[in-house]
Design brief:
The complex is a heterotrimer of chains A (306), B (343) and C (321). Chain A is 73% helix and 0% strand. Chain A has a domain of 210 residues: Orthogonal Bundle (MetI-like fold), CATH 1.10.3720. Chain A is mainly alpha-helical and 306 residues long. In chain B, strands 6-7-8-3-9-10-12-11 form an eight-stranded mixed beta sheet, with helices on both faces. Chain B has a four-stranded antiparallel beta sheet with strand order 2-1-4-5. In chain B, strand 4 and strand 5 form a beta hairpin. In chain C, helix 5 packs antiparallel against helix 10 and helix 8 crosses helix 10. Chain C has twelve helices and two strands. With 321 residues, chain C is mainly alpha-helical. In chain C, a hairpin with a 2-residue loop joins strand 1 and strand 2. Classes of the chains: A mainly alpha (306), B alpha/beta (343), C mainly alpha (321). Chains in contact: A-B, A-C, B-C.
Chain lengths: 306, 343, 321
Amino acid sequence: MASSPPVMSAAMRRSGLQLFLASEFIHNYRRNLSAVLGSLIVFLFLAMVTAGPFIVSQNPYDVAQLDLMAAFKPPVWLEGGSSEFWLGTDGQGRDVLASIVYGSRISLVIGLVAMAGACLLGTTLGLIAGFYGGRLDAFIMRIADIQLSFPSVLTALFLMSAFGTGLDKVLIALISVGWVVYARTVRGSTLRETQKEYVQAARVSGLPNRKIILRHVLPNVLTPLIVVATIQVGTFVLIEASLSFLGVGVPVTQPSLGLLIKNGFDVLFSGLWWVSIFPGLFIMLLVFGINLLGDFLRDELNPRLK
Amino acid sequence: MPRPDIATTPLLSVKGLRTWFHTFGGIVKAVDGVSFDVAPGEIMGLVGESGGGKSMIGFSIMGLIDPPGRIEAGSIEFEGRDLATLGEDEMRSIRGKEIAMIFQDPMTALNPLYTIGNQIEETLALHTMLSARERRMKAIEMLHKVGIPQPEQRLHHYPHQFSGGMRQRVVIAIAMIAQPRLLIADEPTTALDVTIQAQLLRLMRQQVVESGTSLVLITHDLAAVSQMADTIVVLYCGRIVERGPAEEIIARPRHPYTRGLIDSIPHESDVDGAKRRLSQIPGNVPDIRRLPPGCAFAPRCPRASELCRTQDPVLSERECVGDGSGPPRLHAIACHHPLTVSP
Amino acid sequence: MFGYMIKRLIQMVVVLWAVSVLVFVMMSFTGDPTFMMVPLDATDEQIAQARRILGLDESHLVQYWRFLSNMVQGDFGRSFVFRQPALTLILERLPATLEIVFLAMALALLVAIPLGVYAGANPGKPTSRAVMAGSLVGISLPGFWLGMVLIFVVAVKLQWLPSSGRGPTTEWFGLRVSFTSWEGFRHLILPAITLSIGTLAILMRIIRAEMVEVMKQDYIKFARAKGATAKGILFKHGLKNALIPLVTVFGLMLGDLIAFATLTETIFAWPGIGKLLVDSIYRGDRPVIVVYLMFVALMFVVVNFIVDVAYALIDPRIKIK
């Protein structure tokens, strides 16, 4: 097109960052309340779990800092509440807010690490299945199919019942249920990608398979994974909470938000609601933020929906 | 082929219609100041390249423009009423009954979950007081008319059991069954096999002529239009560039764009040796959001001058070089440097 | 049709077999049930005898073969804790679980379909956005936590509904059910609401997405061009097309409900198979865990088969080959 308007050349002179900031993605991000809200929530949680332990008044797992006299204090706005413990205390005089800060850290770390593990495992298996095809592909995908016909929570619960409790075991269980979705997505895009001419050309030119996969296929199949990975962190936080609530998740010494709910459940019937309700509220908030972000990313990164 | 049966008071009169889409990338002026009349019984061809906003004229008449689109200005007078100002309820009673529409792709226009009998009878159920039995009878009769064999049985079949051509016949049956005054056909044959296209166009022409229905045939295929239309309107980037009686436009196009379209139609004479080169209009339809100033066709026009690049040409009418019989027929063009008429 | 059935049956058997292998492998590589059987001060000899009785002294292959052949004959072993056939335990508690699962599913469908259709047909409306935000909250909250909130508010504070247990049951076609009496039904309400919330939220999102997609189709525009009413377009042309894909997620929905019933039943002390599973996991009651898994696997496989057939029957475009 010889007669492209002068606006274009001006745009081309702008720097990459400026171009990104002026892009439709950023424009939509700014206009999208849920995207802003979602990232704000996630950011606040990240800030809380990194800086929180230095800010809250006590380390809830240092027995020396606990005061049994301060047990079961209600939140600050209720009668009998103390400004020292905003969200009240549990049966050992632990600050509920401090427990939540420490618990969020465990929940979020589990979610993130398990997501990374599942992504790595699933992507690798998906690339192998899609690139090499054949029996290996059939085998991997059959396993994926069978696993998908079982709800993740049930599979994870079953694995935990076999492994026993522990942070590492929770991670293994989550990775075992989480890899499938990556494997399927990556396999699909790999199949499409390997049909393309540049990959065929690379193959013909004798580039080793490993290099073709890493250099040509992998970068092109990653985009859809961003959405899957984002949402999966939320899913993992919820599954972990369920496992810990059932007593087969993290050990008592490293209580996640789910375990805090379990601990508070026992005293719920005596009307001491804050011990269990607040941790749940924080789980909801965290997962809600993650899902908002995931929703926005899905709408933006999936051109089919536009 | 002037037809004497065409009356002079128009059935549909579109004046200064502007239908714009407010998108992120800017305003898309899909229809930008379009005016034309359709007389009762007239067949009008609305011609232009893909992406030229032709379909949006049809949807504007039907009142089926969805956000971010909007009719910004202009009037659509139909039997004395301005459709652009009517409410949804009034429009609904007109759609399907007074004005019917045929869609481009018969594979997607029919609901896959209902039998075609059900879908034909739906139109009657919506607009007539006929009983279920009478609706069934009329549906069978209509299917028969559009050339579907064994209509009694076919009535109970689902759309996926029909071929593309057959489905478009069903679509025509649905559109024509309530005897509308105006039929809008939006690229009705584009999605079909070339061999079936001519058949269906003949069928449509026969249907509208028999019932005295007017037809607005929206297409990019000037060749198809030239064989059946009374009037041709040529659109480029949402505007009319040329408008006039079909035989006049085909024989003596005055706008370089129309000329280009005609030259890209293969002629029968090409086959037997005549060495005419099949030409092609250079370049592409520009991005309608960033139209160049002046005439939108200027960047592709061999005759473009500085004037064309700065100033919009105005659509102006003049009388056709007629044979003297009948009322004067008008030929309108929007061009600074029209082609000269070679008598 | 017949060939298809045979093919699907073979597929089902293969899946079940694969599950049995996985279950067996997991079970034999983790923990030793011998110590469940013998007293704490057991001698080496007693332990060895117990191992012989359990068949643990033989090779894994022989053990698996025995495991499989017993299972095919309907013998899943006896519960270590209850000293009863494990299958009997499961079957006894199944009606209680099915009761809340079906009620939860009915609730989810009843609420999700109208809201999903509304939000899908009117995208961009503030009310639609509110519905969608609500569904996002629904998929973000831990269901068991919601159950606890309900217990605290409705049962402990307001004392409207009971917080735990199943209430009176009556015999109904040979099954013990509680929805037949008012008191029994009162016990059902909170668990069913708790269980339904996640499924409800997901369903709503699926229906909305389907509806949005369907409303963009040409046949919707064509129906409008025919002059169809807004209601006709929504319900006759839109809804049916949007609901068909829903049939395919029915199996997944049921699976999720049964999985989350473990948590709901634990909170509400509901005597179903979910609570039995959780209790058995605590107690290391392996036979019960195995039966639960095999039973649930069988259920999913059968449901998915039914779903596939139903899908083919509903959608005229699909022909089973």
